[in-house]
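Figure 3 (text version): structure tokens given as input.
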């Protein structure tokens, strides 16, 4: 994208209360050349940023800003513009002659219950039945017995999956891994599987899980995170692009 295009993109970001951050790398061909990202007014990363700076393409940022007002993504952002509160109307004062002295006025309705907040924690063996259900939504078959064995092995390897809960109910899961590879200078982080229950989607839970996974990987020295997604899961592909991920390769698999 040209400098004029980037200036226009920066102006669009400012109109939404955000700041466009441009990569300082000026050498074409280098890893972060031409990359951009978004932060809020306080400098907190919002999109396309990691610990070292911007990692997203200008096109991805442009698409993110275009869809920022959409309900499914706007609900997950701290920078979403809140609607102006309207002053509550005062109840009409009843005329004294209209009130039956023998009857008391009806009590006001109870206030609505606050919406429960999602939380992320390590998976526990007692989550196994629910995790089996979520993994089935991904299209994988696994028994509860095998899943418990897998959880035990992952805990021993210090790679316990993350789960998201909503009102103490498990509604999402994210598998995490960090591996030393022969061709990279730092461990490679990997999201091995992620799913959010259908009835809990569009509430920012997937975003919470991915951010928690990335934090876990940074603490282990990872400089790159990769994730694989089935070709048929178009919605998942769009989600990862909104999170700043780019398609970099094709995955091959063979049954043994």
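Below: residues designed for each position.
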């Amino acid at each position: 994208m040209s400098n004029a295009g980037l200036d226009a993109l920066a102006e669009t970001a400012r109109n939404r209360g955000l700041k466009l951050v441009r990569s300082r790398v000026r050498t074409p061909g280098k890893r972060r050349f031409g990359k951009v990202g978004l932060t809020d007014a306080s400098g907190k990363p919002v999109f396309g940023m990691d610990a070292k700076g911007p990692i997203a393409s200008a096109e991805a940022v442009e698409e993110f800003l275009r869809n920022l007002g959409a309900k499914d993504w706007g609900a997950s952002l701290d920078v979403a513009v809140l609607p102006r509160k309207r002053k509550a109307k005062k109840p009409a004062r009843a005329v004294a002659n209209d009130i039956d002295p023998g009857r008391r006025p009806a009590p006001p309705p109870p206030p609505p219950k606050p919406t429960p907040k999602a939380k992320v924690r390590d998976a526990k063996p007692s989550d196994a039945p629910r995790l089996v259900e979520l993994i089935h939504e991904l299209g994988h078959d696994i028994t509860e017995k095998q899943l418990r064995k897998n959880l035990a092995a992952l805990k021993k390897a210090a790679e316990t999956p993350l789960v998201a809960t909503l009102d103490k109910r498990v509604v999402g899961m994210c598998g995490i891994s960090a591996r030393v590879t022969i061709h990279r200078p730092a461990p490679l982080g990997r999201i091995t599987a992620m799913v959010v229950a259908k009835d809990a989607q569009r509430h920012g839970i997937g975003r919470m899980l991915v951010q928690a996974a990335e934090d876990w990987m940074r603490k282990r020295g990872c400089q790159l995170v990769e994730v694989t997604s089935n070709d048929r899961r178009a919605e998942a592909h769009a989600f990862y692009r909104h999170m700043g991920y780019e398609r970099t390769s094709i995955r091959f698999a063979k049954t043994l």
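The domain at 118-242 is CATH 3.40.630.30 (Aminopeptidase).
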